[in-house]
Amino acid sequence: MNPVNLLNHTEISAAQLRMLIRKGEITLGGNKKLKIYGLLSCKSGKRMKAENRVFFKDEQQAIANGFRPCGNCKRNLYKKWIYSVPES
User: pTM for the whole thing?
Assistant: First the structure.
């Protein structure tokens, strides 16, 4: 899967964001600087700056863009990811 353009929080209105979430076109959020994705309800994700926040339709889109799972809200996926990364 090729990386796609990310939907930045600062480029969308609150009303548009709510509509996309209701339609299921946005299901996950991510931090574009840290390259971490997680649930929209994650307490860590809610604390990030809007200018760093991006949105994804699904996990495949997040992974295709080089993001890793959040250790807080996606704990099981994070554990699989961390143990699959070779030590440097």
Answer: 0.86
What's the rounded Cα separation, in Å, for the pair 58 and 35?
Answer: 15
Helix or strand (DSSP H, E) at 14: helix 14-23
Q: State how far the Cα of 20 lies from the Cα of 16, in Å rounded to an integer.
A: 6
| DSSP bridge pairs for 37 | 30, 69
DSSP type of residue 83: H
The structural domains of the chain, ordered by start, are 7-84 (3.40.10.10)
pLDDT digits (tens, 9 = 90+) for 31-79: 999 999 999 999 988 899 999 999 999 999 999 999 999 999 999 999 9
